[in-house]
Specification:
Layout lengths: L2 H11 L4 H15 L4 H16 L10 E4 L2 E4 L5 H11 L4 H11 L2 H9 L1 H4 L5 H8 L4 H8 L4 H5 L2 H13 L16 H16 L8 H5 L5 H11 L4 H13 L5 H8 L6
Antiparallel strand pairs: 1-2
């Protein structure tokens, strides 16, 4: 058993009753045999929530070290984790991920996308890109938030599109894993353009946008960030100040603004 599957199994072992664990063990054994997987996996996945339950793993849940980076399970449920145990028990987990994604309902699709990092380097990039084209907010949240897979596997164009779509859907991009490490000039420019469009339309700028705009901000972008750091909107000001502090070494204007009295920032 690979280390990620072992760690995920240990997490469930401390949370599920004996009957649920026995069902999950038997289901994994049947899948590992490799017979009729296109039929067997969807059937077992559909039964999973009834057999295992769907209790939150909670704040004591571990963070798993995956090939894509750290995966925090605190927002997961037992049902999501159990479904990923089924996928990981297969002879070809990547093919199993596709099977569950194609055959499953919306919740099963979300669980599959949320767990792609567990499949490792073999996880299908096309599956994630397909999920990224969705208009279903739950599925897009499963892909874009608290999920290390996009930052690990996407090219800049795909990652930038994911961040902009998250902002368009009013999601908090502070939860986009790897946002700092994947910062790039195109993303900062796109965020500035998005902010300009919102302001021109008299609409508020998503507060977390400044986290992606700041790394390679233009002079106009730095001015917008500094202006929002003075905002009466607490969330907008907090995110703008965080962005300024994180990137003050790159932008002298941030240094000067942060050195000003608090009432002037």
């Amino acid at each position: 058993m690979n280390p990620v599957r072992t760690a995920l199994g240990a997490c469930l072992a401390g949370r599920l009753p004996p009957a649920a664990l026995a069902w999950l063990d038997e289901a994994q054994t049947r899948l590992a045999a490799g017979e009729d997987l296109d039929v067997r996996l969807p059937v077992l996945s559909a039964r999973c929530l009834r057999k295992v339950g769907d209790a939150p793993l909670g704040p004591a849940a571990p963070t798993l070290d995956t090939a894509c980076g750290p995966l925090d399970l605190t927002g997961w449920t037992a049902g999501t984790a159990a479904r990923m145990m089924l996928v990981l028990s297969l002879p070809d987990p990547a093919a199993g991920a596709w099977t569950m994604y194609r055959a499953g309902d919306e919740r099963e699709r979300c669980d599959t996308v949320r767990g792609l990092a567990l499949v490792g380097d073999a996880a299908p990039l096309d599956l994630a890109l397909d999920a990224g084209r969705t208009n279903a907010q739950d599925l897009f949240r499963a892909l874009s938030l608290d999920n290390p897979f996009p930052a690990a596997r996407y090219d800049d164009a795909a990652f930038n599109h994911l961040v902009l779509k998250a902002l368009f859907m009013d999601l908090d991009i502070d939860r986009v894993a790897g946002l700092d490490t994947r910062a790039n000039a195109d993303l900062s420019r796109m965020c500035e353009d998005f902010a300009d469009e919102r302001l021109a339309a008299g609409r508020p700028v998503p507060p977390s946008l400044w986290l992606a705009a700041a790394p390679f901000a233009s002079p106009h972008g730095t001015d917008m960030i500094i202006d929002h750091a003075r905002s009466a909107d607490t969330r907008a000001a907090t995110y703008a100040r965080r962005a300024m502090t994180a990137h003050r070494a790159r932008h002298q204007a941030f240094n000067e603004a942060l050195a000003s009295p608090p009432s002037r920032i």
